[in-house]
Amino acid sequence: MVFPLAHAGLALATSLGAFFNAALLLKKLLKDKVYQPATGWLLFFSRVLLASAAMTAALYYWVDASWWAAWSSTERVIHLLKWIVIGMSIYVATCYSLA
Predict the structure, then answer these.
(1) Whole-angstrom distance, CA of residue 12 vs CA of residue 3
(2) What is the pLDDT of residues 47-76, one digit of tens each?
């Protein structure tokens, strides 16, 4: 995964490893009855998942990666900050609309 995708592959492999470790830890804690999830966790998880999907879909639809090469460094910073704020706004609005 690392060589074909370069630094993005390294980040992806690290993230997948972290998720796998967290899943194994959760499985063990649930099996040993050390961790008992509260009643609202499933609803909270579904809200976070839907808000993340809405943010991802909106940014994927509106942002074109080919623009990046045409921008200067200052324009890159400005546009990156703009899309971070837009993505955050979509995420928070979706979370509040599902509450």
Answers:
(1) 12
(2) 999 999 999 999 999 988 888 889 999 999
